[in-house]
Amino acid sequence: MFPIKLEGANVLYYTSQxxxxxxxxxxxxxxxxxxxxxxxxxxxxxxxxxxxxxxNYEVVSDTLHDSVEECMAIASQYKENIxxxxx
Length: 87
What we know:
Shape: globular
Number of helices: 1
């Protein structure tokens, strides 16, 4: 079951486990695989976060956006036709 919070932010939408890419260290070595994506919002913030998570739901990368729709558009760069689950 997907967590309801990530790093203290409320999860609004999340994906099923798939391969959404990876992050690399500056030397080109693999840092982390992106296995889940989540759109989250902190209670006191008016912005939305796109979190890239590993197999254990740990956030390994994030980006800040003005809307849920913007998060979804950016996520489509990781993989086409993403299916979002409402939290």
